[in-house]
Specification:
Blueprint: H1 2-10, H2 18-27, H3 35-53, E1 59-64, E2 76-78, E3 81-83, H4 92-102, E4 106-110, H5 113-122, E5 129-134, H6 136-148, E6 153-157, H7 170-177
Parallel strand pairs: 1-4, 1-5, 5-6
Antiparallel strand pairs: 2-3
């Protein structure tokens, strides 16, 4: 991906939107399957200093429900997403425990992007940045919407997507949610 990004930058491609990236990839003869990956990478770079200046308690962390162990999860679905019962049957508990120890006050396990924006509207004055874990398609869509609202954010992609029993690099999640400037 870095090689393709270098090519795009060399031709002066507009990388500000998903559609612009798609056009630029077509222009250099590349398949557009990397659009969402490139877009989230660019947005992560553009917002990282703004996100990491925000105190932990003013950041919102969104985890996808697909990280849950579909057969053994004991979480309860509420109007603000799932409430982890800390059963230890998946990595969500480890991530939540780490974030809470850092001082995060706004941690959500959500079934999809629409709930993220509903929650953000409700806690608008309490948070100054958002960090989300999801597949590239969900991350890119959320990043577009957050960018339009000028909410600094960071996107953490799943290692294995698929809407059920997905996998994320827990060490990478901890590194990003624990980073500060």
């Amino acid at each position: 991906m870095l090689e393709i990004l270098t090519k795009l930058m060399a031709v002066g491609a507009d990388l500000s939107s998903r559609s612009a990236i798609k056009k630029a990839l077509s222009f250099i003869g590349e398949d557009d399957e990397l659009v969402d990956q490139i877009y989230t990478f660019v947005k992560n770079k553009s917002y990282e200093s703004n996100v990491f200046k925000v105190p932990f308690e003013k950041r919102a962390l969104f985890l996808p429900q697909c990280l849950r162990n579909s057969k053994e999860c004991q979480a309860e679905l509420t109007k603000k997403g799932y409430v982890c019962k800390k059963c230890g049957n998946c990595n969500i508990f480890e991530i939540i425990e780490y974030a809470e120890n850092l001082g995060y006050k706004h941690i959500y396990i959500v079934p999809g992007g629409s709930l993220v924006f509903k929650i953000l509207r409700e806690i608008n004055n309490e948070i100054k940045a958002a960090i989300g874990v999801a597949c590239f398609v969900e991350l890119a869509e959320a990043s577009e919407r957050l960018s339009r609202k000028n909410i600094p954010h960071q996107c953490i992609p799943l290692m294995r997507a698929g809407c059920i029993d997905t996998v994320v690099d827990v060490g990478e999640v901890k590194k990003i949610i624990g980073r500060k400037i």
